[in-house]
Design a protein that fits this description.
CATH architecture of the largest domain: Alpha-Beta Barrel
CATH superfamily of the largest domain: Dihydropteroate synthase-like
Number of helices: 19
Oligomer: single chain
Helix content: 25-40%
CATH topology of the largest domain: TIM Barrel
CATH class of the largest domain: Alpha Beta
Largest sheet: 8 strands, parallel, barrel
Low-confidence stretches: 466-509
InterPro entries: Dihydropteroate_synth-like_sf, DUF6513, Pterin-binding_dom
Pfam families: DUF6513
Structural class: alpha/beta
Protein name: Dihydropteroate synthase-like enzyme
Shape: elongated
Distance between the termini: 36 Å
Radius of gyration: 29 Å
Mean pLDDT: 87
Length: about 500
């Protein structure tokens, strides 16, 4: 017997929801029920518990993706599972087709060495702080980068301090004295040993990273590999990634050749030679390089965050390595797995067409401003009309908020977000910050747990202090970005509207 799903929605979204479900031709039965609220996205668990008196024989209930409140408690109250669907109706097909098969991103095989490049110039406490930040971003090993002709008197102390905090430690130097000292102080890895310094591996227990001399000499690399294999010791090989126009393509070929000749050796790639030395956003470069690593089973990378534009390189690499492993093991493209690295653009930035937005505007019965975007521009509308432009300044004369500073500020912020999203091709949702993937983390109160109700925003707080407007009930907290006055109970449709408060008729129509 086919599963029966009850979809709860609001009046404005009902028609689109029914159309979307019909076009899906789903393999489940469904019922669409309007809960008596205008905007579906502002539905809450408490509201559902009060208003839903019939579950229509459904096996489970799907509520809008932005529905706030404790759905587990609601499920227990109703006696059937209640789940959040996607944030946008147009994402329903993907929700039912792909979301259930989302790969496990808890696993990875690639180890990230996060290099503290200026380690000789900062004290041990600063090194520990940097290491902790790198570990939070995903680094598995903290690499202490030595500098040519630069004393590092606290090298041993730094290694011991890092080890006491539970870090794996590597030291990156071409100075034999630094490498020998590091090995004796307990470093787990030494970067890098060549034919002339391979003797250090006999003196310490550290795992060496092997390079050739000169670094493009494959015969030299083959010789150090053979010597370490004869010793029966673990080692890692680094064929050296060169910057663009300084041997980059040849170095990629070199990695392929090393894997062909030595199918079982551990290999490292120093991705910083590309991310640091190319003024391009690093996510794409990291994605491409770690894709090569995944194909060649390169299981170690050296990542750096020296240049300001590369400040998220480790965090990017952490997510990419998980995506690449999941894609490879499931024999699929690294696509539709996770959108955390799509900072500038999105797969489906415009859920509604201009025509659908126009249709939506005709159903509005209150003065609250809604802001949406489409390929045609930024749209702001209420019951009085719909205005479209690519420039928010051109929209201001239509809004009638010249004498309402808080409301004008709120609309200015939202229209600016909408303009940025429309230009870049990103999703825009009114009252929500733009999603920059893993690159920007917002406070929990802004982008946090949907089981909790959102706190009031700054414009609403300010207007409460300046006026005797009533504080909303718990169900009204979705209006965190609203200027005063606060809507009546259960009316969250007017969160951006000027006075007066909509009537009860406006709330439910």
């Amino acid at each position: 017997m086919a599963e029966h799903i009850l979809f709860l929605t609001g009046k404005l979204a009902e028609k689109q929801l029914r159309r979307t479900l019909s076009e899906m031709s789903p393999d489940f039965e469904y019922t669409v029920h309007v809960l008596g609220v205008t905007v579906a996205a502002l539905m809450t668990a408490d509201m559902i518990q009060r208003r839903l008196t019939d579950t229509f024989g459904a096996d489970r209930i799907l509520v809008p993706g932005r529905c706030r409140g404790d759905l587990e408690a609601l499920s227990q109250h109703l006696g059937i599972p209640v789940e959040r669907g996607p944030e946008e109706l147009n994402d329903l097909p993907e929700f039912f087709g792909k979301a259930r098969q989302r790969p496990d991103l808890s696993r990875y095989e690639l180890r990230i060495f996060g290099e503290v490049v200026e380690a000789p110039h900062i004290d041990v406490a600063a090194i520990i702080r940097r290491a902790e930040a790198y570990r939070r971003d995903g680094a598995d090993v903290i690499d202490l980068g030595c500098l040519p002709a630069t004393p590092f008197p606290h090298l041993a102390d730094a290694i011991k301090a890092l080890k006491s905090e539970g870090f794996l430690v590597s030291v990156d130097s071409l100075d034999p004295e630094n490498l020998l000292l590091a090995g004796r102080a307990g470093a787990d890895f030494l970067l890098s040993l060549n034919e002339e310094t391979l003797w250090i591996a006999d003196e310490v227990a550290s795992t060496p990273v092997l390079i050739s001399t000169p670094h493009a000499d494959m015969d030299s690399l083959d010789r150090v590999i053979a010597k370490m294999q004869d010793k029966g010791r673990p080692f890692i090989v680094d064929p050296i990634l060169d910057p663009i126009h300084f041997g980059f393509t040849d170095s990629i070929v070199r990695y392929h050749e090393v894997r062909r000749l030595h199918p079982d050796v551990e290999i490292m790639m120093g991705v910083g030679n590309l991310t640091e030395l190319t003024h391009i956003d690093t996510a794409g470069m990291n994605g491409m390089l770690l894709g090569i690593c995944s194909e060649l089973h390169v299981r170690h990378i050296l990542a750096t965050q020296v240049s300001k534009h590369a400040c998220k390189a480790i965090k990017e690499a952490d997510l990419i390595r998980r995506i690449m492993l999941a894609a490879r093991e499931s024999n699929r493209l690294p696509k539709h797995i996770d959108d955390g690295l799509m900072a500038l653009h999105e797969r489906a930035p415009f859920p509604l067409s201009f025509a659908e937005i126009q249709e939506l505007q005709t159903a509005i019965r209150d003065p609250s401003f809604r802001i949406m975007i489409s390929t045609e521009g930024v749209h702001i509308f209420n019951r009085n009309g719909l205005w479209t432009d690519s420039d928010p300044f051109a929209l201001f004369p239509h809004l009638g908020v010249e004498n309402d500073g808080g409301h004008a500020f709120y609309l200015g912020v939202e229209l600016a977000r909408a303009q940025i999203a429309q230009k870049l091709g990103k999703r825009y949702t009114q009252d929500q910050p733009l999603d920059w993937g893993i690159h920007v983390q917002f406070p929990e109160a802004t982008a946090g747990d949907l089981n909790e109700y959102a706190a009031a925003g700054s414009t609403l707080k300010a207007s409460r202090e300046a006026s005797p407007c009533p504080v909303p009930s718990k169900d009204d907290k979705a209006s965190r970005s609203s200027p005063c006055p606060v809507p009546a109970k259960d009316d969250k449709t007017s969160r951006s509207s000027p006075c007066p408060v909509p009537s009860k008729k406006d709330e439910t129509e």
